[in-house]
Write a structure and sequence with these properties.
single chain; 325 residues; two-stranded antiparallel sheet; eight-stranded antiparallel beta barrel; 11 helices
Length: 325
């Protein structure tokens, strides 16, 4: 774990809220020079604390269906498991891929334009590797809420910010320049307007207009930062809850708790999955036990059961639809 000062944490927190903020804005908010801000960002990237910056795009508004796949493997060698991982990793439709400890071994997010496109991937996966798969769990993600990582700033801070970046597919018509702008800004929102304008062969004024248009349409939802949580001293875990749904008031309180807890970074709603799924950054198993005790003490009467998955290795993290491939 890398030791961070309070100003380091403030900078990381601000970059996570909006990674497109200028050096001037960050300097003013954090109270250090522009030179110091630029130096720190470069240092965080070199140390691997910042993996990359990314633009949050609503996949549904680009017409994508979001499938979530979990696999449990059997009769498997390390080489064969790596072969399965590489097969999924090389699929352009797979935008997120992770190794898991818990009820499953591999998890993936797959964005496709149709059920038939998903079916082709599904059939190819089973034709190649069915003898090594003991369980497969394929569901549709209908909504994902992405919260501010308040724990970076202060572990007692409450989350105050959220994005909903997966919605039901309803493709919006986009202009050619808007698509080009998305391609240019997707994997590095810290590019300047001049750089973006040059890449899409237009004027800076037009580039600004296109960004504002995409934000207004809800295609671009924000600009965030991908961190190496291990270097910040945290692990990544998912908890899936099945509810009895007998008390709407308590369930609403549970939803509010999820939104405000500084260690919860995602809440997933899944068609065919559990009722509520949360993803957290925790220090260790003891830390997770403390959070789970708090949840059960307050909301245990509506929780029928829960499962825990530890995400221990990320193989692919694009955070964007396959329009960019």
């Amino acid at each position: 774990m890398i030791k961070l000062t309070l100003k380091d944490r403030k900078l990381l927190y601000e970059l996570d809220l909006n990674s497109r903020q200028s050096v001037n804005e960050l300097s003013r908010k954090i109270g250090v020079s522009k030179t110091a801000i630029s130096y720190k960002i470069n240092k965080f990237e070199q140390e691997g604390i910042i993996r990359h910056f990314h633009t949050i795009v609503d996949a549904g508004k680009l017409g994508y269906i979001s499938f979530r796949l979990y696999l449990t493997l059997e009769n498997i060698t390390p080489q064969k498991e790596l072969e399965i991982i590489e097969f999924l990793k090389n699929k352009k439709q797979v935008t997120w891929l992770v190794s898991i400890e818990g009820n499953y071994d591999i998890g993936a997010l797959i964005l496709v334009k149709s059920v038939s496109e998903m079916n082709l991937i599904w059939k190819e996966l089973l034709e190649k590797f069915n003898e090594y798969i003991s369980k497969r769990f394929l569901t549709i993600m209908t909504r994902v809420n992405y919260y501010s990582r308040a724990f970076i700033l202060n572990e007692k801070e409450r989350n105050t910010f959220e994005n909903n970046f997966i919605t039901e597919p309803k493709e919006l018509p986009l202009e050619e320049k808007e698509i080009a702008l998305l391609q240019a800004i997707a994997t590095n929102p810290r590019k300047s307007i001049i750089e973006l304008a040059s890449e899409i062969k237009t004027t800076p004024k037009t580039a600004i207009q296109k960004i504002k248009s995409l934000e207004k349409k809800g295609v671009i939802l924000g600009y965030r930062t991908a961190f190496d949580y291990k270097k910040l001293g945290y692990k990544y875990v998912k908890v899936m809850f099945r509810l009895n749904r007998t008390n709407n008031i308590i369930e609403k309180r549970f939803q509010d708790y999820i939104k405000q807890n500084p260690f919860i970074v995602y809440k997933d709603e899944v068609l065919g999955g559990e009722d509520i799924e949360i993803e957290l950054n925790v220090k260790n198993q003891e830390h997770l036990r403390e959070i789970m005790k708090e949840i059960k003490d307050n909301f245990g009467q509506i929780i029928k059961e829960n499962k825990t998955l530890w995400y221990y290795k990320e193989h692919k993290y694009l955070f964007l639809p396959v329009i960019w491939h």
